[in-house]
From TrEMBL, chain A:
Native source species: Psychrobacillus soli
InterPro entries found in the cross-reference section: Anti-sigma-factor_SerPK, HATPase_C_sf, HATPase_dom, RsbW
Similarity-based family: Belongs to the anti-sigma-factor family.
Name assigned to this protein: Serine-protein kinase RsbW
Histidine kinase/HSP90-like ATPase domain location: 11-140
Gene name as annotated: rsbW
Domain of life: Bacteria
TrEMBL record, chain B:
Pfam families from the UniProt entry: STAS (PF01740)
GO MF annotation: an example: anti-sigma factor antagonist activity
CDD domains in the cross-refs: STAS_anti-anti-sigma_factors
The protein, known as: Anti-sigma factor antagonist
Entry keyword annotation includes Phosphoprotein: yes
Coiled-coil segments on the chain, per record: none
Lineage of source species: Bacteria, Bacillati, Bacillota, Bacilli, Bacillales
Record function comment: Positive regulator of sigma-B activity. Non-phosphorylated RsbV binds to RsbW, preventing its association with sigma-B. When phosphorylated, releases RsbW, which is then free to complex with and inactivate sigma-B.
InterPro entries: Anti-sigma_ant (IPR003658), STAS_dom (IPR002645), STAS_dom_sf (IPR036513)
Record carries keyword Phosphoprotein: yes
Organism: Psychrobacillus soli
Amino acid sequence: MKPFDYVEIRVPAKPQYVSVARLTISGLANRVGFTYDEIEDLKIATSEAITNAVQHAYTEDEDGEVVIGCALYEGKMEIMVADHGKSFNFEETKAQVGPYSEMEEVSFLREGGLGLYLIETLMDEVKVHQQEGVTVFMTKHVGVEQVDGNVKHISS
Amino acid sequence: MNISVELHQKDLLVVNGIIKGEIDAFTAPILREKLSEIDLKENLQVNIDLTDVSYMDSTGLGVFVGFYKSINASNGHMELIGLSSRLKRLFDITGLGEIMDIQASSGEVKIDETV
């Protein structure tokens, strides 16, 4: 048995569907057990990736699709957003996605400003893969920040 | 999913705005359009209430950055008020919180229930 449940969402590459995908992510993240703040982070990060796909991947007259693949683990969620409208073999694509490097031509993500920055800040791990379009791969763990931030030492 | 933007000309040099709903790739252009209708007189003060904004991402930040630049160019001032702790955080992690005049909602100091 696979160690995760997989859910794939396909939406037209149009801005009005970003919120639809965001709602779905919110529901899935709730299943995994993320806190309210973590779910809000996931919603923003995913919206940023989809918005990039919608705004940059397609010319106005093209009917593209954005595919959002979500792998739900025990205490972890992986999300892939691809702008080329093809379904993933999730494991295969994940293996191909290299670490994000400043050397890569990712100006498409940086233009318009803060999208990629927010993704990197809000998620635990981010990779960008560019081949037949762009794939953003991101991971978030349940309760990572909370553990570090709220450990209290009992002295006595 | 919707956005509502109300603008009230309080007096000659004060405009109060109220935004409600979600600001994302779909609604940000609507907000930008609305804000562009404001006549940017010298020394204009624009207060925008975000109390009922339930979601915002970089598309919304982009709109406010654009408006901030325009109003500053005419010696005006933009103030964003009623930010939830989520919205405040968004401005803070992007560094915009230090540049812009933003006021968190009074409920901001409440105990974080998620911990």
